[in-house]
Amino acid sequence: MKRTKIIDVLQDTQYGKTVDVCGWVRTHRSSKAVDFIALNDGSTIKNVQVVVDTAKVDEELLKQITTGACLHVTGTLVESPAQGQASEIQCQAIEIYGTCGADYPMQKKGQSFEYMRQHAHMRLRTNTFGAVMRIRHNMAMAIHTYFHQHGFFYFHTPLITASDCEGAGNMFQVTTKNLYDLKKDEEGKIIYDDDFFGQQTSLTVSGQLEGELGATALGAIYTFGPTFRAENSNTPRHLAEFWMIEPEIAFLDQEELMDLEEDFIKYCVRWALDNCCDDLEFLNKMIDKTLIQRLESVVDTQFVRLPYTEGINILQEAIKQGKKFEFPCNWGDDLASEHERYLVEEHFKKPVIMTDYPRAFKSFYMKQNQDTDDGGSVGYKGAVAPGPTMQGTDVLFPQIGEIIGGSVREESYDKLMGEIKRRDMDMTHLWWYIDTRRFGTCPHAGFGLGFERLILFVTGMQNIRDVIPFPRTPKNAEF
Amino acid sequence: MKRTKIIDVLQDTQYGKTVDVCGWVRTHRSSKAVDFIALNDGSTIKNVQVVVDTAKVDEELLKQITTGACLHVTGTLVESPAQGQASEIQCQAIEIYGTCGADYPMQKKGQSFEYMRQHAHMRLRTNTFGAVMRIRHNMAMAIHTYFHQHGFFYFHTPLITASDCEGAGNMFQVTTKNLYDLKKDEEGKIIYDDDFFGQQTSLTVSGQLEGELGATALGAIYTFGPTFRAENSNTPRHLAEFWMIEPEIAFLDQEELMDLEEDFIKYCVRWALDNCCDDLEFLNKMIDKTLIQRLESVVDTQFVRLPYTEGINILQEAIKQGKKFEFPCNWGDDLASEHERYLVEEHFKKPVIMTDYPRAFKSFYMKQNQDTDDGGSVGYKGAVAPGPTMQGTDVLFPQIGEIIGGSVREESYDKLMGEIKRRDMDMTHLWWYIDTRRFGTCPHAGFGLGFERLILFVTGMQNIRDVIPFPRTPKNAEF
Predict the structure, then answer these.
(1) What is the distance in angstroms between the Cα of B354 and the nearest Cα belonging to chain A?
(2) Which residue, A124, A149, B352, B462, could crosslink B217 as a Cys pair with Cβ 3.0–4.6 Å?
């Protein structure tokens, strides 16, 4: 038996030939002397229609062909009278691989997403989740292809880490210790000498710092792997285990970093539009009627590049004009989702790359803008800020908010150490990171993209738990 | 400044034009009135030669250009008189991004691999590790490209799992519990209600079972992600954290599975030969003189397909002829590395796909061959075994041993449950796996490939710690 995938059968017009298809029954309906079986094998959202002459097939066998059953059908490829498909199959023989009882969880159409999550092992067989998973695959492929073509090397940073694990409350501890027999020292502190790694370890929250080691050797790298946050956040935007993409590039300045961010994300969205038409059309119809239009608008538009200080001015002006926000947005405040959305969706009506954030709420490793005499600083394209700023470059998207968080990294050993001191950080476990600034330091930059955020944007799905096969959230590690 | 990567400069023959290159100094030597600086930016193993007229450059600046320093050089592209490179750069101006002191760990050539591991954050800047990391990237790209072109979907199975974590001694526990305040029930058992996931969780040892959920919905999937084993193995073959590729395919039989395994691995090796010439030539010269020859032999040869029972016969015959093995190899024994290597390297002198292993030492989910009346079984191409066998299909490689472990999966609910009972397994946490055999079950198969094993084979490196950026091994979670 040489099986043909349904995606290929549907495009094949060599009518009259015999084909073998396998798949799961989506529907089975009877009409006078013929039965129609809609069969799907996951290769495409479209089903192939199998037309069965009921006189020629055993009645008992036909009865077993219920929704969810798995079949092998041998038949003749014929032109389809139905719209939207070139071909269908005139059945010659049916073999049932697996029957499917009435307790099949995906029996009924239109079940809630909450119900689907409880049956995540079976929801993959539905149209919506099939579409989402195929798009997810395509976005991963777009990412790898983009970086490969641009001379980046895929770099596997470790997941188990001894850095940064002390005192970080939102990390998962990793241990092989016998919790029934925890040895402690004289002060009552747990001894980790006998733990697997001989010290306390946890799951990484970011591969960036190791990524910088890669970039300052190989020139340009990217990570693409799982990342963990033990935050007790039960929201449609948070997962405890999610996938991140973190490119890191030597010899890149802020302008080039923004060029890269914009080019990269447009490439991904364009890939979806070019390669996931059927799935996008389905989602556009069933999930979000403005989806394809929104994707196209991102690809076709030039992103706004906006220093934070200018963003604050726009928000302040809006407040003067009567706009109400829940949270304050004075210079120095970290912008809330409502502020970002106002700028992106109402003011500019296009994606915004925000730059030059106040140092106070950005990370220690970001490149510091040049300070002025009055305590301010000069950033992107000479933009003057009333306080010290850093060369962050975050991409804000409609509906999603921050989809990319990026920055130029501080390459100066002295400035970096000054910032570490200012923040009173313990760098004992990060001696290797500091070494990059000691030995042949170089200008470099990078960004992080939450993969599921991208999938949310590209699929129009509303809940992050519905764009990953088996979500990990507080109190949920099923499957 | 528009930087040109060194890989592009070396191929450029538009002599006379001005180029900007950035990179790290590999060597700096003086010769009469000119200095030669070998600069590398990680884009290729090759350095670009920068020729400096010492009369035109500040002497103090030249002194700072030591091995490891990072430079930005502006210069004229000229034809190189040296062999093996078309172009070199006549220096116009040098900017030092970062100096590099004498304590630079990669100062000297020919340091031991053990020394390099202790400085894994800097070893990436050496020829050997640059080559290995570029090849590693290329192998990842080959894998994604192969599966994409063959209609497989990249499927992200979870890393944190509640399945299989009880009693599995070689798993890492993942917890957010306060180890100083472990609540216990009346029987003294630790209560996990208040752990992050509300139950005991650990890091996955394989994504296969979840992968089967993907395959029985999407038709063909593959995983490519980190996997964990808390084995206290200090060998050149073991990592506690490594990357695995696990394709899983619906409607595939044993013969087709072997076709896939062979085609897939040949594609990867061919990719390396086609796309990593410079790095392979370096490794062939410095690490393993038979490397390229071995890679070519794999691509050009047809793999042997050998039922386990026939393999045992060959080994027994060899023993009769005087061959000595350390471990026994009677029917029913799990083959040791020495047996596999004898078959691959001495007897067949080519890769072997071994099939139809005794049920006793293979996993519960493997498809059972048809039993015969006398307690034996019939497997691949009618091969008769003296005991019950399963449709495993492992690929054995020269030098590496088992590089792929694969099998057809048992699709029959009754047979699978029989095997689970026979092994007295607790399937409480795997109810969802059993469901695949209850609802529209189908023939399917898959395999697992340890990514680092593949990299070892393709690079000729001897120690698995040297083919991943930052290895995780017992007592070692540095970087």
Answers:
(1) 23
(2) A124
